[in-house]
Design goal:
The complex is a heterotrimer.
Chain A (H helix, E strand, L loop, with lengths): L5 H32 L13 H28 L2 H33 L7 H20 L5 H32 L16 H41 L1
Chain B lengths: L1 E10 L2 E11 L3 E6 L6 H8 L7 E6 L2 E2 L2 H7 E4 L11 H11 L6 H12 L13 H14 L4 E5 L7 H16 L3 E5 L9 E5 L2
Parallel strand pairs in B: 3-8, 3-9, 6-7, 7-8
Antiparallel strand pairs in B: 1-2, 1-4, 4-5
Chain C lengths: L4 H21 L7 H27 L2 H8 L5 H30 L7 H25 L10 H19 L8 H29 L1
The chains are: A mainly alpha, B alpha/beta, C mainly alpha.
Chain lengths: 235, 200, 203
C-alpha cells in the first residue's frame, strides 16, 4: 500500500493541474454549445435549462459531503494529515455547490411555480446539508491551531454523515404526515436522448471544475504548511 | 524506569520542545528547570500522556505509554486547581479519592489534614480557602493515593516555609519507597542527590 | 447537582418568560396547540445548548480532564454519567414548570402528559448531541462560539417527530419509536466523540 503523504500528492497534482484546466475548458465549450442549441421545453420555456447547473451541483454537493465524511473517519482513525487536508480543501467547494443548488432551485421555482421556497422534503434536507457545510467551514477556521480545527471539523463531519440520512428520512416522513403540501418533482430521471447527454456533459464539466479548484486548494495548503514547518525547524 | 527519546512538540506553528532525550529510574528525583515559557508544563503533559508529541516516544519499562499505564502508575499535580469551588473541602477529597479508586478513610484524611494544615475546618467551601491553602490540598492526594510515579508541576508555588519543608519531607519519603518523582519548579528543594534537566 | 439546579431554574424562568411574551403578543389570535408546542421545543433547544455548554465549561476544565484521565474510570464513562445527570435535572424542571408554560401559551391540558413524555424522550437525544458540540467549543484556543449553528441542524428530526406525534394517541407506541432509535444512535456515538474531543481539543 502506497503511503500517501501530502508532499507526494501535491507534487503529483501539480503536474496535472494544467491538463485538468484544459479539459474543463473543452468540456465547458461543448456543454455550453449543447445547452444553447438544444430545443426549448414545451411547458417551461427557456428556464428549464437552469436544470443543467442545478442537478449536477446537487449531485456534487452530496458526493462531496460523502467524501468529506469518509475522509474524516479515515483521518480520525489512522491520524493521517493528508485526509484532513483533503477535507479542508473540499469544504468550501461543497458549501459553494450546496448554495448554488438552493439559489438556482429558488430561481427555477419562481419562474416555473411562482414561489421561491416551499418546505418540501428535498429542499429542506438540502437546506440542512448547507447548514452542516457552513458549520464545518466555520469550525475549520475557529481554532488558533490548525490541528485542533481539523479534529473538530472532522468530528462534525462524522456526526453529519451519520445524522444526515436520519434527517432526510424524517423530513420525508413529515411531508407524508402533512399531506396538504404537494410534492414537486425537480428534474427527474425521465429524461432521454439529447437531454440526458447534455446533463451528463455538464455534470462532468462542473465536476472537473470542482476538482481543479480542490486540487489547487490542496496544493496551496500543503505548500504553505511545508514552508512554515521549514521555517519552524530552521529557527 | 521512564525513557524519553527524541521528543518534539509543536503547537500550531510554534515549536515548543525540540528533540528531548531523558532517562529517569526509580528512587530518583528529577528537576526540570528552565526559564519561563520554555515548555516545562508541556514536557510534563507529554510525559503523562495527555498530549501527543509531534515526534518521539516515551517508554515505561520498555512499554510505550498509553491510557492504561498512565492511569495505573502516574499521579499528575497541575498548576491550576481541579477542585469544585462550590463543594466543601471534605466532599472534594472524597470525590477525587473515589475517582482514583481509593476508598475514603476518614481517619487517614483527618490525620493528613492535621499534618499539613494544623487546624482546618474541612466543611468549609473550597472557594473560601486562601490561595496557599488551595494548593496545599493537592499534597493530600499525594499522601493518600499510592502510585509509583509523581509528576508535579510547580508544587512549591504559593506555599509558606513550613509547608515547603513538609512537602520536601513527603517527597524524600517517596524516594525511599522506590518511587519516581519529576518536578518542574524554579525553587530548589533542600534535598541531596537531585538530578537536573535544563530546558533552554 | 442541587447547587447547579439554580442555573437550570434560571434557564427555565427564561422559558416561562419567553413563552409569556409570545402568548401576550398573540393574545387576540387563536393559537393552535402545535404552534405553541413548536415554540416550547425551540426554547428547549436553546436551553439545552446553553446548559450543557455551561456545565462542560466548568466541569471539564483543563486540570479536571487531566485528573479524570489519570483515574480508574474511562473519560467516556464520566461523560455518560454527567450527561445523564444533566438530563435528569432538565426533565424534572420541565415537569415542574410545564403547567405555567401551558397556561401562557394556551395549550389544551389534555395534552399535558403527552407533551411531557415527548419532552422527556426528546431531551435524551438533545443532551447527548449537544454534549458533542459543547466539548468541541470547550477549548481555550477556540475563538468563535458557534455551537448553536453546528448543533441545531441535528435537532430538526426531533422537532418534526414531536409535532407529528401530537396527532397520535397517548398509548400509541409507534410515535415514540423514533425517539428511542435516535437516542440509541446518539448514545453509541456521543460518549466516544465527546471524550475524544475533550482529550484532543482541550489540552
Amino acid at each position: 500500500m502506497i503511503v500517501l503523504n501530502p508532499k507526494t500528492l501535491s507534487n503529483f497534482f501539480d503536474n496535472y493541474k494544467r491538463l485538468l484546466f484544459l479539459l474543463f475548458l473543452a468540456f465547458s465549450i461543448i456543454s455550453l454549445g449543447m445547452i444553447i442549441f438544444i430545443d426549448n421545453d414545451y411547458y417551461q420555456g427557456v428556464s428549464f435549462k437552469i436544470m443543467f447547473i442545478h442537478v449536477p451541483a446537487a449531485w456534487l454537493s452530496l458526493m462531496l459531503f460523502g467524501i468529506i465524511g469518509t475522509v474524516s473517519i479515515i483521518g480520525l482513525v489512522f491520524k493521517s494529515p493528508t485526509s484532513f487536508i483533503i477535507a479542508r480543501a473540499i469544504s468550501p467547494i461543497g458549501l459553494l455547490m450546496s448554495i448554488t443548488v438552493l439559489v438556482t432551485g429558488s430561481i427555477w421555482g419562481y419562474l416555473t411555480w411562482g414561489t421561491f421556497w416551499v418546505w418540501d422534503a428535498r429542499l429542506t434536507s438540502m437546506l440542512i446539508l448547507t447548514f452542516i457545510y457552513l458549520g464545518h467551514f466555520i469550525l475549520l477556521n475557529s481554532f488558533e491551531h490548525f490541528q485542533k480545527s481539523d479534529f473538530a471539523a472532522s468530528i462534525l463531519a462524522v456526526i453529519g454523515l451519520v445524522n444526515l440520512p436520519v434527517v432526510k428520512f424524517s423530513v420525508n416522513w413529515w411531508t407524508t404526515l402533512h399531506q396538504g403540501a404537494s410534492v414537486f418533482k425537480i428534474g427527474g430521471p425521465s429524461l432521454s436522448g439529447i437531454y440526458l447527454t447534455t446533463l451528463m456533459i455538464s455534470f462532468f464539466c462542473i465536476l472537473i471544475l470542482c476538482l481543479y479548484w480542490i486540487i489547487n486548494i490542496f496544493v496551496t495548503i500543503t505548500e504553505t504548511r511545508r514552508y512554515e514547518r521549514k521555517k519552524l525547524f530552521n529557527e | 524506569m521512564l525513557k524519553i527519546s527524541n521528543l518534539s512538540f509543536a503547537r500550531g506553528n510554534k515549536l515548543i520542545l525540540k528533540k528531548i532525550n531523558l532517562s529517569i529510574s526509580n528512587s530518583e528525583i528529577m528537576l526540570i528547570k528552565g526559564p519561563n515559557g520554555s515548555g516545562k508544563s508541556t514536557l510534563l503533559s507529554c510525559l503523562a500522556n495527555f498530549i501527543e508529541p509531534l515526534e518521539g516516544t516515551v517508554h515505561y519499562f520498555s512499554d510505550l505509554i498509553n491510557q492504561t499505564i498512565s492511569s495505573k502508575n502516574f499521579i499528575f499535580i497541575s498548576e491550576e486547581n481541579y477542585a469544585f469551588e462550590d463543594l466543601s473541602v471534605l466532599e472534594n477529597i472524597h470525590y477525587w479519592l473515589t475517582i482514583n479508586g481509593v476508598t475514603p478513610n476518614d481517619k487517614a484524611i483527618n490525620r493528613s489534614i492535621n499534618y499539613l494544615y494544623g487546624e482546618l475546618n474541612i466543611n468549609k467551601k473550597f472557594l473560601h480557602l486562601s490561595f496557599g491553602q488551595k494548593r496545599k490540598l493537592r499534597m493530600l492526594l499525594l499522601m493518600l493515593i499510592n502510585k509509583p510515579i509523581w509528576i508535579l508541576d510547580d508544587p512549591f508555588n504559593g506555599l509558606d516555609e513550613e509547608s515547603i519543608k513538609k512537602l520536601t519531607k513527603i517527597i524524600s519519603i517517596k524516594r525511599d519507597q522506590q518511587g519516581m518523582i519529576i518536578i518542574a519548579t524554579h525553587i530548589m528543594p533542600m534535598l541531596t542527590g537531585l538530578k537536573e534537566y535544563n530546558l533552554l | 447537582m442541587l447547587l447547579k439546579s439554580t442555573q437550570t431554574l434560571i434557564l427555565f424562568c427564561f422559558i416561562v418568560m419567553a413563552s409569556s411574551i409570545f402568548g401576550l403578543a398573540l393574545r387576540y389570535i387563536q393559537i393552535d396547540s402545535k404552534i405553541s408546542m413548536a415554540i416550547i421545543w425551540i426554547l428547549l433547544f436553546l436551553v439545552v445548548i446553553i446548559k450543557v455548554e455551561k456545565v462542560y465549561l466548568e466541569d471539564f476544565s483543563d486540570p479536571k480532564i487531566q485528573q479524570y484521565l489519570n483515574s480508574i474510570f474511562a473519560l467516556e464513562v464520566i461523560v455518560l454519567i454527567k450527561n445523564v445527570m444533566i438530563y435528569i435535572n432538565l426533565v424534572l424542571f420541565f415537569l415542574i414548570t410545564s403547567p405555567l408554560i401551558f397556561l401562557t401559551l394556551s395549550i389544551d391540558f389534555k395534552f399535558f402528559w403527552q407533551i411531557n413524555i415527548l419532552a422527556a424522550l426528546s431531551l435524551l437525544s438533545l443532551v447527548f448531541i449537544s454534549s458533542i458540540t459543547a466539548s468541541i467549543s470547550n477549548s481555550k484556543s477556540n475563538r468563535l462560539a458557534i455551537t448553536s449553528v453546528v448543533t441545531l441542524p441535528l435537532f430538526i428530526p426531533i422537532l418534526i417527530f414531536s409535532i407529528g406525534a401530537l396527532d397520535m394517541d397517548l398509548g400509541n407506541m409507534n410515535s415514540y419509536l423514533f425517539f428511542f432509535a435516535y437516542f440509541l444512535l446518539n448514545l453509541a456515538f456521543s460518549p466516544l466523540l465527546t471524550s475524544f474531543a475533550l482529550k484532543k481539543l482541550s489540552m
